[in-house]
Amino acid sequence: MKAKKFFVLLIVLLLSSLVLGACQPAAEVTEEPEVTEPEVTEPEVAEPETTEPEVTEPEVTEPEVTEPEEPAFLWTKNLRQAIAAAIDREEIVDRVFEGRNIPAYHMVPDGYPYATQPFFDKYGTRDLDLAIQLLSDEGYTEDNKFVFDLWYPPEHYGTTTADVMQVIKEQLEETGLMTVNLNSMNWAEYVDGFVAGDLPFFILGWFPDFADPENWLSPFASCLQSPDNGVNYCNEDMDALLQAAAASADPAERESLYQQIGELYAEDVPTIPLFWEPEFVSYRDGVEGVVVGAPFEFNYHVLSFGADAQPASGSTDTIIIGTTDEVNSLDSVDAYATHDWEVIKNTGVALLSYTPGTSELVPGAAAAMPTVSEDGLTYTFTLRENLKFADGTPVTAQTYVDHWNRLDTLEGQVSGLIQLYVDSVEALDDLTVVYNLKDSFGFFPALAATAPFVVANPATFLTDEIVQFPDIIDGLGAYRMVSFTPGEQMVLEANPEYFGEAPLIPKVIIRYFADPTTMSNAVESGEVDVAWRTLGPVEAIRLQDVEGVTVDKVDAPALRYMVFNHTFTVRE
Amino acid sequence: MSEKEILMQVRDLSVEYNTRLGEVSAVDNVSFEIYKGEILGLVGESGCGKSTMGKALMRMIQPPGKITSGQIIVNGEDIMAYDQKQMRDFRGRKVSMIFQDPMTSLNPVQRVDEHIIEAIQVHEPDTNTTEALARAQTLIQRLGIRKNRMKSYPHQLSGGMRQRVMVGLGLVLNADLIIADEATTSLDVIVEAQLADQLRDIRETFGVSLLVITHNIALVAELSDRLAVMYAGHIVEMGDVESVFDTPLHPYTKGLLKSIPNIKLDDTEKLYKMPGEPPNLTHPPAGCRFHPRCPFAMSICSQVEPEFSEIVPGRMVKCWLYLDHPDKEEATIEVTA
Amino acid sequence: MSTSLRRFLVTRLLLTIPMVLILVTMIFFVMRVLPGDPIRSQLGPRVSEEQADALRERLGLNRPLYIQYFDFLWDMVTLDFGTALTQGERPIRDELGERLPATIELTIPAITLTAVIGIFSGAYAAKNRKKPVDYIIRLLSIAVYSIPIFFMGLIFQIIFSVRIPILPLSGRMDTLLLTNFTSITNFYIIDAILTRNWPALWSVLMHLVLPSVTLGLALSGVFVRLTRVNMIEMLQSDFITAGRARGISENKLVYRHALRNTFIPILTMLGLQFAILLAGAVLTETTFSWPGVGRYLVERIQLRDYTAVQATIGIFALFVAFISLLMDILYAFIDPRIRY
After folding, report:
1. Which of A77, A307, B127, C165 shows the smallest number of beta carbons within 10 Å?
2. If we measure between CA atoms, which residue out of C114, C275, C276, C93 comes closest to residue C186?
3. Which residues of C, range 130-189, sit inside 8 Å of A by Cβ?
4. How far is residue A52's CA from residue A55's CA, in Å, rounded to a whole number?
5. Which ipTM value was assigned to this complex?
6. Is the pTM of the predicted complex or chain greater than 0.95?
7. What are the backbone dihedrals phi and psi of residue A570, each rounded to the nearest 5 degrees, phi first?
8. Which domain holds residue C289?
9. A457-505: per-residue pLDDT in tens?
């Protein structure tokens, strides 16, 4: 009898503790980190060539002694610079990635307009002496080292992340004045952690939404957007520069401004760019037209079979592409993932497009490049004549207005991005669409080439709801989607109403794999023609030695960077 | 005595078990005969080798045991030379066995009729099921079990009924010899008596020979024609039941018979216990295996093993008391028929 | 059906309800206790806090816990299951409706194979106890048991799909055939027969070979050991000796008499293994890109997608309960000693 009661009690306790534990997180509201005054005032933007040495003392007190009244921020400028100086990217790339990755000396990718290398300019590949100097200035000695936690997710960015962290730890500790504690958390908790401001120094990855430096800088360094990435950085001067650069349409002016932003970035170090991870695409011999340009677009309509090709499908009118990605949403007012955007761009056309394999912007659904108003706030597009969706429905300027309204009201995942820049959309006549921007953003053409600007067929994508998994997509693009079985495959067929040249291969089947190894086996055995995202370096290197298979490296704009939580307080 | 026909002749049969402690000599060079239509009782203490003997007669010794030597001749053929197929045919049809615990000796998931039909069809594969069923039914009824119990499972029958099914399985193929291995040990006295009657009945009706292996001497006295006494792997005495009971020759037999509880004993008399214990058969005593416990042991007993000899027609004994030997100093006892 | 058997069935079915209830309640709370938030993990850091909150609001995650709980229970009872929280708010019923048949189509041949390989190897080993073949079988069963499933799957893939291309690599059906395939029940075998699509049927069966052999083989190790041990004991039984005394052949004694008597523990194990089978299916489904429910569950757990995980585990619980009930009923048919 006693044993029975004991067990009942145990179960009751167990259940009630679970219930109590569960109730907690639901009630908690994540605290917004305070955006405080900047710690240092920067010298005004003057000559781009010379940089004045920073000597101004930080206003924050010594980390060891904390005044009970005001919280002291952990990251003083000296400390940030010290870490930026002590990191040797070349070594990381060599040791962990065998030279495959590209060291990043700026947040903005090298091939981009207005890209510079400010971190290299200021710190070279590494400046250990400067790091030691700065740490000593902060009062740290061999007996009193600067101790802090470094966080990373062990699997989200690949298993090499742990190795990268280890190398960084060694590099920082080489100064003799730092002790780095490595910590890891799985992705879900990690995101929670940095959004809540719990992590002082951590790694993140970034993938661009559109091909402009603006998208590589503001999300981390602007007062408005940096909290979303856990950076919590706010510097009035930086903000002013960023806004000016974004709002300028004059290339020369933008170039100068981004130069200054770069210098300020290396000086104030909101984040530290580490390296770019390449992506690999693999395809069987005989497949041609596999090009992925800087904007990271994979266009199916330029793929073709050469003379000696052996198509996986058995016939040259069907090509099979393998991927380990998954479809999250095919509604262009909602989709915010790389694979989704790829499908949307192949079944539809944005206002502007890139010539396949390049970063050259050309007219897409628009007949010509847009005209810009004097104040840079209004962009006017003239649509092509006789534009039709694949089901024959005509596409007019009004379609674009309806599309914008849909994006604005339905609050899909990507709407926040576009709403940052676009204020309203009007249709002047059947062929003329006008975009009124919130500021004179000079990069708007790059934005107009992204998936949210692919207009969706209202027959499938209903006005008052987001349709993430449509049965078919009849869009403007070279292909239409005729079927989709989640987890298995998607079938695309040539769109008879496409305004451009018909695709070289009329049928595309996308095959979804759960596992990169299985996918690479499939390329090897000829079950698929192309394997794209995400092959991973291990499989890519293996396939390089396999006969009949070609592996290309794509310098993907996938950045890994270290984040300082600028409002992280010492007491935490 | 009328001339009896020999059904089975056993010559120099030895069975050994290969255990971790060594080779156990469970049956050592035993020779005897079983006549047609007789009931032969085989008695002895636990561990004397009688069960092993019973199994050996059907070559059912499983590893780690092994028949190491000897011949078992039935119908002029030595079954030691039979191959597997011949043995399977032999078992059940020429010689069959009934077991101690009918509950565990019957397949729990097989019905009574299935048991019998299977036995029939194994040996006579051309028999179709209906025929076999009919034969089974006749047999069952003969044994006193009602027809409607044919479809029952063993656990649905009473102990006595199960035993009767067991007997039926022994009879179904008209075997010449039925070996009853401790068949009554787990039965209560009333059922035991019933079974004994039944066995006798079978012998009367079918002329079947029976080898009744038991440690129940009373049963043997009741039931058997002849009696064999085993000790430590040897048959030490054999003869017709009455003679052996009247005049036991071997000291072991004497001790055994004295140990039987007797209602006539009064309170002051204690039960007779034979001194000592059965020997360790990995290292059996030299000479006569009984000599360490024998009240009549002589010096020769520990040196030379006596032969199992027929000292009077129909009476065999393995003891130096009744045999001559050059080294023997004491006198040999003469036995009259 | 006898009244006692009927009563037994009814009692067991009724008992399933509280069992499933307790299980899904536990899952409900465990999921919420785990650190990590479905919204954040899905959206990542790029979305602002307001948007994340708006999403939470829309998905009903800001409601008081007990309301969410009862809503969830109601969903389960009405077989609605709600919608997934992340990666496309598809109705879970649709997702499960597509994936569950795939998993079932994989696991049934797998468990059959497990049973067949396990039982017959075990019986054979028991029959030939202490002989070389016994040791070999035991060694193989341990090897099969310890090799990780996905590794075995990959090896089979490499050998039979890449090196000697006789079997398909992954997926449920040939890519091209799939484009013309109409699926009604999502059991591709049934659908192929219903639509008389014979090339598709052949493709499905061929695609089933590698994954089900992998899964079936991987789980058979346990069965071999279990059967062997039980059989060895069974072969010492008196009724086996009695049968041998009647001239029944060794083979019949082992494979008919003894085996039938060891079914009870084996069936019990089969029932239990079914739950493990579902777990093993996850790895197999990943290696062979099988669009089943195991893979789905793992993805959703990583994303902290409460509703999807709850519903899926609820379904799993029902399955396991059902299988265990089935086993109990089977006992009655197999062993006449068990009557309710």
Report:
1. A307
2. C93
3. 154, 157-158, 161-162, 165, 168-172, 175-176, 178-179
4. 9
5. 0.83
6. no
7. -65, -35
8. 92-302
9. 999 998 888 888 898 999 999 999 999 988 888 999 999 989 888 999 9
